[in-house]
Amino acid sequence: MKWRQLLVFRLGACLVNLYRLAFYGKFPGGIALIWQGLRIKAVLVALAIGLVCLFGGQWLYEKYGYQQSLQQALGGQPQVADFTAEEQNGQIVVTVHLRSPDNLMPTYKELERRVSEALGSRRFVIKIADKRDAGLEEVLYRSQFAVYQALVQGSFKEMEAEVSANAREAGAETRIYIDSENVYLTFTRGDRFLAEIIPRNPPQTVTEGGVPYA
User: Fold this and answer.
1) What contacts 118, CB < 8 A, 6 or more positions away?
2) Pairing between β-strand 192-199 and β-strand 182-189 as defined by DSSP bridges
3) DSSP strand E in the chain: where?
4) Cα-based distances in Å from 36 to 25, 39, 64, 78
5) What is the distance between the alpha carbons of residues 199 and 153, in angstroms, rounded to a whole number?
6) 3-state DSSP percent of the chain in helix, strand and coil, to 5
7) Cα 194 from Cα 128, distance rounded (Å)
8) 3-class secondary structure, 173
9) Interatomic CA distance for residues 197 and 107, integer angstroms
């Protein structure tokens, strides 16, 4: 909201200055624009500056205004340690660094809702950044066949048993969450954790998971 208010204020000030230029031939501060008495040139200059202000301000808001909206949406969330956002290939990539893997499914759902509200009609991808290491990645690799088999055959009990066994062998704890859209896996060992979100259906460029950090 502060960004929008600032943009409106600056555009308003710009339009006031244009009025002075077009009708008085002067900028603020008394700087005169005189070209042999031809006021039409001043009007054309005013029009050109007005278009730059209008479309330049709109471009700046479209390009960078979402950062403020995302800060308001995600900055106070207890599970969010940090986040970054950048535009890539026509969509906003939001990378969220989690404090812990606890309650991954409801945490992700809340993140998705807040990001969607903040970005409006913009396309976006959410990436979950975790603290994985090579050992946890090996557990995920060994568990992937059981997960994708369960997505095809519906054998989620068997999947849970095999994934949990793989985690125990590596000295890690695991939690598995399932809803109508995704399978949510977390592996934790010591101060390291891995969080992976696997779509149950072909991805619709809404979510990605598993970005290591720190």
Assistant:
1) 66, 69, 70, 72, 73, 74
2) antiparallel
3) 80-88, 91-98, 124-130, 173-178, 182-189, 192-199, 207-212
4) 12, 9, 42, 65
5) 15
6) 50, 25, 25
7) 10
8) strand
9) 12
Sign of the Cα torsion 40, 41, 42, 46 reads positive
Residue 209, pLDDT above cutoff 70: no
Please choose, from the candidates 186, 161, 193, the residue with its C-alpha nearest in 3D space to the C-alpha of residue 106.
Answer: 186
Please name the residues in contact with 25: beta carbons below 8 A apart, sequence gap of 6 or more: 32, 33, 34, 39, 42
Indicate the residue type of 120.
Answer: G
pTM above 0.70, yes or no: no
Of 80-89, 124-133, 157-166, the least confident: 80-89
Residue 70 has pLDDT above 70, yes or no: yes
Is 70 exceeded by the pLDDT of residue 20? no
Which amino acid, one-letter code, is at 107? T
Is the model's pLDDT at 122 over the cut of 50?
A: yes
For the chain, how many helices (H) and strands (E)?
5, 7
Task: Tell me, rounded to whole angstroms, the distance of Cα 64 from its chain centroid.
Answer: 12
190 and 198 Cβ atoms separated by less than 8 Å? no
Question: Torsion over CA of 165, 169, 171 and 174, rounded to 10 degrees?
Answer: -20
Q: Measure Cα distances from 173 to 124, 166, 187, 195 in Å.
A: 31, 10, 6, 12
Question: What pLDDT, on a 0 to 100 scale, did the predictor assign at position 10?
Answer: 57
